[in-house]
Design brief:
By secondary structure, the chain is α+β, with helices and mostly antiparallel strands. The chain has helices spanning 14-24, 58-61, 89-104, 124-128, 154-159, 164-169, 198-202, and strands at 8-11, 34-42, 45-53, 73-81, 110-117, 132-138, 142-144, 151-153, 171-172, 176-183, 207-208, 211-214, 217-218.
């Protein structure tokens, strides 16, 4: 039987990564500015993908960590796995990808990522991987386009030249967005308070695989 330690993580081509993301990510969408893609292989086949790239909101993110240079952080903007990998594989795969970034891109000091607790989850994998929770906010950035019923992020709306006033008139998806940071360089210091993971449960916003949780069970 294959074990977690048998998983191989390596850089893969964008097309291979994006095809997998479209198939297995809950949104079915890729992030155009993803530049670095890692694949998780077990028994000779691809079973997971992590895509990193320039932060979508770089100006609004750079000050989360003190004295950060313009190219010293990166965003983990897509992550997807199928059901083949053994339990707890995701945190190991993330850890390996972070080690590879540290080794091959030493200028990158930290990583930002987001958990979508409107449709997916509250970041269980990030917490298990050593990320710090630095933000919890009620969702306002993900809204339903009334014309085609598609979910649209505020950044997507901007790129599509949709006026802010029009976008903000659309209905926002109920839920929360959580912000996580991983300090590759342990000398880095947060510029914002670290939030206790217990806060998620206290606020009643726990979510796992698209299911809201209440007192440890499905809500």
């Amino acid at each position: 039987m294959s074990k977690v330690k048998d998983i191989i993580v390596k850089v893969i081509p964008p097309k291979l990564a994006n095809d997998f993301i479209r198939m297995y990510h809950y949104s079915g969408k890729v992030v155009p500015n993803s530049k670095l893609h890692f694949g998780a292989f077990l028994d000779g086949r691809l079973h997971g993908v992590m895509s990193y790239g320039t932060s979508i909101n770089k100006k609004g993110t750079i000050n989360l960590v003190k004295d950060t240079g313009w190219n010293e952080f990166i965003e983990l903007n897509r992550m997807a796995f199928d059901d083949y990998l053994p339990r707890n594989s995701e945190s190991r795969v993330i850890a390996i990808s972070l080690k590879l970034i540290k080794k091959n891109a030493p200028h990158v000091k930290w990583v930002i990522s987001f958990a979508d607790a409107t449709q997916c989850g509250d970041g269980t994998i990030y917490r298990a991987s050593g990320f710090k929770l630095v933000g919890i906010s009620k969702n306002t950035a993900l809204r339903i386009n009334p014309k085609n019923k598609e979910l649209t992020h505020i950044i997507q709306a901007h790129h599509k030249s949709i006026p802010s006033k029009e976008f903000l008139s659309w209905k926002a998806i109920e839920g929360y967005q959580l912000k996580y940071v991983y300090l590759i360089d342990k000398n880095c210091k947060l510029n914002v308070p670290e939030i206790s993971f217990n806060k998620i449960k206290e606020m009643g916003i726990s979510m796992y695989k698209g299911q809201k949780l209440c007192n440890g069970g499905v809500k």
